[in-house]
Design a protein that fits this description.
single chain, 185 residues, alpha/beta, Rossmann fold, six-stranded mixed β-sheet, 4 helices, binds inosinic acid, binds magnesium ion
């Protein structure tokens, strides 16, 4: 169902978003395909879906309902340090999953891969815990990240190099609840 312009403004409190990049139907269709691909991909064994908060919360909740195999869910909260986002500041875990990772298939779920700095550091941190396998499922990929880790296996959309909000993605904590993804620029 397409969201009418006045309904968009109702949701944003009158703040305009310039265009809807992925509407609800488009997202739902792609999430269904991803779920099928993930169901197909994983062999037997424990699967732990690890959502990176906060951005992945809506995507993850839709995605896991499209995966037709047993799995468990946990979350990570990471915080980047360093003067600039692009700088090689270290990543600190503010919430560490309670579930043991050892011997399990771990699928890290991300909202968007931009520079990939956070992702790169999380992968090295998680692989040190001896998972049986480690892969990444990201809803959006801006195609900016260079020397891409082989763990990046599932991508929802090759996204434009714009600032996107909605479906979990925020701007200063606003707009996460929009059911579609919009360009804020
Ligand atoms: P990276 O470390 O540069 O890949 O940035 C990753 C994080 O920055 C994502 O998990 C998002 O939280 C945030 N981010 C990057 N691009 C966008 C965007 O277009 N909209 C909202 N958040 C973004
Ligand atoms: Mg953010």
């Amino acid at each position: 169902m397409l969201t009418a312009p006045n309904e968009v403004l109702q949701r944003t409190g009158g703040r305009p978003v310039s265009s809807i990049v992925y509407d609800e139907q488009t997202i739902a269709g792609r999430v269904q395909e991803l779920g099928a691909a993930i169901t197909e991909y994983y062999p037997d064994g424990d699967l732990l879906v690890l959502g990176l908060l906060k951005g992945s919360f809506i995507f993850l909740s839709d995605l896991v309902r499209q995966i037709r195999r047993p799995l468990q869910i946990d979350f990570l909260v990471a915080s980047s340090y360093g003067a600039q986002k692009i700088s090689s500041g270290s990543v600190k875990l503010l919430y560490d999953p309670e579930t043991r990772l050892e011997g399990k298939h771990i699928m890290l779920v991300e909202d968007v891969i931009d520079t990939g700095t956070t992702l790169r550091r999380l992968l090295s941190l998680l692989s040190a815990r001896s998972p049986r396998s480690l892969s990444v499922c990201a809803l959006l990929d801006k195609g900016i990240m260079t020397e891409r880790p082989s763990e990046i296996r599932f991508i929802g959309f090759q996204a434009p190099k714009a600032f996107l909000v909605g479906y979990g993605l925020d701007h200063a904590e606003d707009f996460r609840h929009l059911p579609f993804i919009a360009d804020l620029s």
